[in-house]
Amino acid sequence: MSLGQELAPHLPFLRRYARALTGSQTHGDAFVRATLEAIVAAPDSFPREVEPRLGLYKTFHAIWSTANIEEGGDFGSENLGNAEGIAQARLSRITPLSRQALLLTALEGFSATDAGYLIGAQPGEIDNLVQEALGEIERQTLADVLIIEDEPIIAMDIETIVRDLGHNVTGVAVTRDEAVAQARAHPPGLVLADIQLADDSSGIDAVRDILAEFSVPVIFITAFPERLLTGTRPEPTFLITKPFQRATVKAAIAQALFFDAATVPAS
Predict the structure, then answer these.
(1) Burial status of residue 110 (CB atoms within 10 A of its CB: 0-12, 13-18, 19 or more)
(2) Which of 10, 39, 94, 110 could form a cystine bridge with 53, CB 3.0-4.6 A?
(3) Do 94 and 173 have their domain in common?
């Protein structure tokens, strides 16, 4: 099996991680492209002492660490808008290493040992880094949250997680029309949306309707993440895979709000 064939199954999930890390599909996918270009240019340098997924993420981190993102980097820095500027200001209050540890373990499911390998930290440091990231991000960001989910048990679980983080749940919608109506009645600061809804309507369409009227960060929840991580069209920045872990939802919420310029502390 060629190296390309070994890496192909892992690319959608590297895109998920890169988008969450940068807060942008455009910037995240650009880092993934740069990673692939580096591998193609020097295949003999690819880490073969570890499994392909670890080697892929390790190569990504080599690109990430040299891009100097705090200064804008080389990936479209001339197009950074106000939201990106606010996110960069927030980076001064929480280290990128902490955020990487959080996303690698909670979102991507790496062990502390593997996460340590990827970011150059000892395994024993990872737990402390994760707690540092969660503590700082949770203190920074509180929001009104709209949940779009037609499965009652899953909706209840998400609502519990959201409230445990200190956020307010404005409503739980089970159809496209209901979601739009609730957003209009109580404009949310964050939307958590399933893809397939109760009346066979689409959570994607519901979000599209909401975004036509409000600027709000969105996290999609789906059992088929690969369909929304192709890198070939406009796709979600933040994506959670079903079945999900509570830590995954917490990490995604924290990261989505971290990059949201409109979020203000709740009263």
Answers:
(1) buried
(2) 10
(3) no
- In tens, the pLDDT along 123-178 reads 889 999 998 887 877 676 689 999 999 999 999 999 999 998 889 999 999 999 99
Confidence band of 14 (pLDDT split at 50, 70, 90) = very high
Other CB atoms within a 10 A radius of the CB of residue 8 amount to: 11
Tell me how far apart the alpha carbons of residues 260 and 264 are, in angstroms, rounded to a whole number: 9
Task: Specify whether 7 is located in the same domain as 134.
Answer: yes
Please answer whether residues 238 and 211 qualify as being in contact, where contact means their C-beta atoms are separated by less than 8 angstroms.
no
Residues 47 and 99 in one domain: yes
What is the value of pTM for the model shown?
0.84
Boundary-marking domain end, from 87, 106, 138 = 138
Q: ∠ CA(30), CA(34), CA(39), 5° rounding?
A: 150
Residues 23 and 84 in one domain: yes
**96-99 contacts, C-beta under 8 A, 24 or more apart:** 96/69, 96/70, 97/121, 97/129, 98/129, 98/130, 98/132, 98/133, 98/136, 99/21, 99/133, 99/137, 99/255, 99/258
Domain of residue 8 covers 3-138
Report the number of distinct structural domains present in the chain.
2
Please enumerate in sequence order all residues whose Cβ is within 8 A of that of 37, keeping only pairs 6 or more positions apart, or say none.
none
CA distance 148 to 208: 13
